[in-house]
């Protein structure tokens, strides 16, 4: 019971700054909710990410099981820094996209929370028990479990109904405005 209370307090502490950001999102921004995401791969070498999110806006969440998260800040003028609490370790990571090198941080552990707000981020989440709430404009890719008899969590985009994570799909968050 005490652990649950501490977890809820930690999430509330992460949610308050994100709520302030949420008030400033525009009419064409959308939302993403993932609950209990797990594709069965874990975090081993060659594992597929459960969620890959590129968003201008905010993302807060938790990995309830064993997990790994890579967060890349794609806006060099952004003063905000992603925050992760409860992770066992972290290290800097890089990835190359075309002729650009992106730098980020990788956190690993069991049962940890994260927040990235007021910026443009690429967030890649591996593991089990993935819970995520994001708002803004962007794209999300999912990798559900290939065995349909094994629960892999659910997602909702832009207020839609919850569905099982698709095996391999990319979807938009928010809409492009007409002016």
Distance between the termini: 50 Å
- Number of β-strand runs: 8
Broad structural category: mainly beta
Total helices: the number is: 1
Percentage of β-strand residues: over 45%
Estimate the mean pLDDT confidence.
86
SSE order in H/E notation? HEEEEEEEE
- Unreliable stretches: 14-24
- In helices, the fraction of residues equals 10-25%
Largest sheet: 8 strands, antiparallel
Give the helix/strand layout.
Elements: H1 2-22, E1 30-38, E2 51-73, E3 83-85, E4 89-97, E5 100-142, E6 154-157, E7 163-164, E8 169-173
Antiparallel strand pairs: 1-5, 1-6, 2-5, 3-5, 4-5, 5-8, 6-7
Give a description of the structure.
By secondary structure, the protein is mostly beta strands. Helix content is 12%, strand content 55%. It has one helix and eight strands; from the N terminus they run αββββββββ. The chain has one helix spanning 2-22; strands at 30-38, 51-73, 83-85, 89-97, 100-142, 154-157, 163-164, 169-173. Strands 1, 2, 3, 4, 5, 6, 7 and 8 form an eight-stranded antiparallel sheet that branches. The radius of gyration is 16 Å and the shape is globular. Residues 14-24 have low confidence and may be disordered.
């Amino acid at each position: 019971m005490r652990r649950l209370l501490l977890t809820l307090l930690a999430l509330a502490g992460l949610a308050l700054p994100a709520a302030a950001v949420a008030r400033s999102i525009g009419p064409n921004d959308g939302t993403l909710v993932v609950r209990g995401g797990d594709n069965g791969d874990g975090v081993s070498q060659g594992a597929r990410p459960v969620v890959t999110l590129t968003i201008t806006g905010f993302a807060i969440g938790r990995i309830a099981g064993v997990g790994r998260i890579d967060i890349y800040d794609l806006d060099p003028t952004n003063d905000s820094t992603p925050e992760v609490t409860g992770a066992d370790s972290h290290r800097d990571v890089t990835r190359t996209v075309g002729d650009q090198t992106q730098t980020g941080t990788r956190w690993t552990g069991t049962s940890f929370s994260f927040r990235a707000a007021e910026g443009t981020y690429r967030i890649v989440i591996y593991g089990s028990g993935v819970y995520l709430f994001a708002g803004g404009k962007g794209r999300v890719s999912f990798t559900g479990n290939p065995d349909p008899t094994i629960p892999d969590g659910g997602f909702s985009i832009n207020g839609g109904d919850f569905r099982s994570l698709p095996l391999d799909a990319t979807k938009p968050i928010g809409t492009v405005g007409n002016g």
